[in-house]
Every structure is written in C-alpha cells, then in structure tokens.
Design brief:
Layout lengths: L14 E5 L4 E6 L23 E3 L4 E5 L5 E6 L8 E7 L2 H12 L4 E9 L7 E12 L5 E5 L3 E12 L6 E8 L6 H8 L13 H8 L9 E12 L2 E8 L4 H8 L4 E2 L3 E2 L19
Parallel strand pairs: 6-12
Antiparallel strand pairs: 1-2, 2-6, 3-4, 4-5, 5-6, 7-11, 7-12, 8-9, 8-10, 10-11, 12-13, 14-15
Amino acid sequence: MTLPTDWIPFGRGVRAVATHPCGLIAVAKPDGILSHPNPGEVAEKGTILIAGNYSLEEEAFHVRDGQGGIRRVYLLNRLDSPTSGVLLLSLDVGVADVVRKMFARSQVSKQYVALIRGRGLRTPRGTWQDQLSKSKGPGGGVRSETGAGAPAVTVYQWQRAAGGTLPLSLIKLEPRTGRTHQLRVQTAAHGHPILGDRTYGDFEFNKAVGTARGFKRLFLHAESTQLSFDWQGAKVEFKAVAPMPEEFTEALAADDGEAPGKGPKPPRRDAGTPISPRLRIRL
C-alpha cells in the first residue's frame, strides 16, 4: 500500500522516493535545501524541506492536511544544506521514536557517494577510525576536527577515477557513527577532501576542478538508507534510494579542456585558474 504524500508541501525539488504503511516516508533532498528552519533566521521560500511551522521540541513540521486539520510530519535525521540525498520522515510519533533511537545507536545503514581529490587511494577499500571534537566556527556555526573527542568510523570504497587527467575520484562512504560533518572531516583528514567543500576542503582544488568548470555544489550525496525493526507485531523492512545526481557524472566525465556535457570549451577571457601540477599528482 502506498502512503499518500501529495498533501505535504515539500520544498523546491524535494520528492518522496519510498513510503511504508507504518508511516515512514523517505524523500530525496536536493543540495541547497535546509532539513529544517534555523531558529531566528528567515529562509527564502522553497528552501526548507517542508513548508510549515516547525517545532524544535518535537522535531516535527506542523502541516495542514487538506481536510481542515493539522498533522505532524516528524523529521528523523538531517543532512547539511549542501548535501543532497535521502532523508527519513514519519507520520507516526511511535515510529519516529523507534527510528530516532536506531539512528542514535548507529543501527541504520547509510551509504553516500562523494567526489574527492585524487585519482586513487593507497588502499582502495578500508576503514577510517578517528576521534572528532566539535567547536564553534566563524559566525557561530559548528565545526569538527580530528584529534581528541568521540570515535568516528567510516568504511570507504574507491569506485573510479574521472576521465582524462582530472585529479578526481568517485568514492562510496558508509558511516558507522554519526558525528557532525563526519564524512567531510574524515575525507579531508585522510588527504582526499570532497570537491566543493568550502569549510574543510582544498580551495585551490575547488576552484580549478569545480567552479572554473561550472560546478558550484558540494559533491556529497546520501544515496541510500536501509533499516529493519519490529512494529506492532510485524517486521518492517525499509530501504530508500536516491540515485546519484547527474552533476556527479558530468563532473567525472568532463576533461580539463571540456565544458560539462558540452564538448570542447571555447576560449574565454575569464577561463579561471588552470589546474596546477600539484593537483595532478596521483594520490
């Protein structure tokens, strides 16, 4: 049975990708969309996951159901605004409580894809184990760094290098813990920052391989989420997939002298910074 979601006022580009009769809803969030409103800030229309009043205490959106009532749509996990991919919601408070506890205990399987600096890794598959601590960053935001702190564990697997000589690779990431900015910090700490990361990334790399070629996003995407739990005497098996965005394929396919998807790049006065020899080194 499909759970109707057409009454939920999703933000720009947000769409449901899987539902379950117990009340679970998985949506695909584009980059640039907030998982929920930030207190004290006014967001542009359409840039929040769901349009409606949001309760920080309940972690739920209050939405008109089209029948004269108000329903709660519970937010079960979050993605940073620049990160795209699968997010989970629930229409049932009991299911919301169960799944939130599963996220807290690292019992939900999550897989991400990212574009990182370098044409290879010294070990194509392995596990990163670090300690991460949080601190206040510029403007009052939260930053994480390696060193002392809580354990952060991520399983990674290199997939393929970009076309031509671009110092860029596709990697799959499976976080086994859920620390703030975990994947972004760990990829950078291990020498392979994510393309487009303005906080933890390599700014020369971002400019030469990203913005100079027309790409402006953070290339991190939550591709799938899977979980299993007992509910009202039955086993719930739930999996949601948001396919890798086309921008990832374009960034991997376009060579140094080509515009994404458009063949050879015509000469321009503002052609940007050429890719330096340092960035071409095979890692």
